[in-house]
Amino acid sequence: MNRIILQLIAVGICFAIGQALQCYKCDIGIGDICLTSKTTCGSGEHCFNGVGKAAGFLDIKMKGCLKEAECNKTEQVNFPSSGNTTVYAMTKTCCDTDLCNAAPGLPGTPGLSLAFAAISAVLMANFVVY
């Protein structure tokens, strides 16, 4: 009888671990740069993408896990925390499937910038050789 109970507990633990949500995580990113890793969310959490603007023009990004009650809200981030100075507003939108808060491709290198860098490197190499 004890053996059956232990087997049921083991199966239950495996099932609970298999249900954990995987998300991309980025603590803070600026512009197109948001270095991501993968993380496992806790119970009652969803994946989220956070997008905000600092000083009215600088894009700020975040990714990770967030409690469901905090999803799809805009949060004002103040600094210093005791003052009324708003640094940025962050809107966090959630999703609930594995890795649904997609990681960016190559951070900070859109195709046009990458092509410009390659052409510049070739031109500089020509000047150095002569």
From TrEMBL:
- What is this entry's stated membrane topology? Lipid-anchor; GPI-anchor
- The yes or no answer to whether the keyword Glycoprotein is present is yes
The residue range of the signal peptide is 1-20
Q: Which UniProt keywords apply?
A: Cell membrane, Disulfide bond, Glycoprotein, GPI-anchor, Lipoprotein, Membrane, Signal
Q: Where in the cell is it found?
A: Cell membrane
The UPAR/Ly6 domain is annotated at: 21-115
One GO cellular component term: side of membrane
Q: Which family does it belong to?
A: Belongs to the SPACA4/bouncer family.
- Quote the protein name from its UniProt record: Sperm acrosome membrane-associated protein 4-like
